[in-house]
Amino acid sequence: MWALCRARHKAHARRKFFDLARLNKAPIAIEAVARIDALFAVERDINGLSPEERRKVRQQRSRPRVGALGTWLREQHARLSPHGKVAKAIAYSLNAWDALVRFLDDGRLCMTNNAAERALRGIATRGSLCTPSSSICKHWKRAVVGSATRGPLSGNRRFHRVRRQIGHFDLEGRA
Known about the structure:
Elements: H1 2-24, H2 27-46, H3 51-79, H4 85-95, H5 97-101, H6 114-121, H7 126-129, H8 157-162, H9 171-174
Helix pairs in contact: 1-2, 1-4, 1-6, 2-3, 3-4
């Protein structure tokens, strides 16, 4: 699970810049997206190669770009107010830098973590199983849970100790 949480940084780092570039038209965010997209172009070229071949190409083509991106991000961050949105996006990337560049040294890893993101979406939470208009979420302690087929839930601290699982997607009907 820790590996999946660490992998989430990749998608979040790019998404923060992408949103700022698209919504705010921030020049630094637009440049960051362009630099990250150049890395994605390399990944598209090596898709389907063996892990060792992917690692070699990444060392030749991606490592210099990643190094330049890191230097550029640190320079931009030093120029900006730490309270701005772009500075916060840069700080997020720099704080997660080790996780972001791990793909360079291991050809088995993907640059993106979309598969990990999709895997995490399958874990059910109390909110994901209840409709917004449902009163069952408000009275969660009264819900009857059955056999386990979905991910673990933790309603509150007392319920968390039990670690029950939802056995059917129709929680309202079962309650």
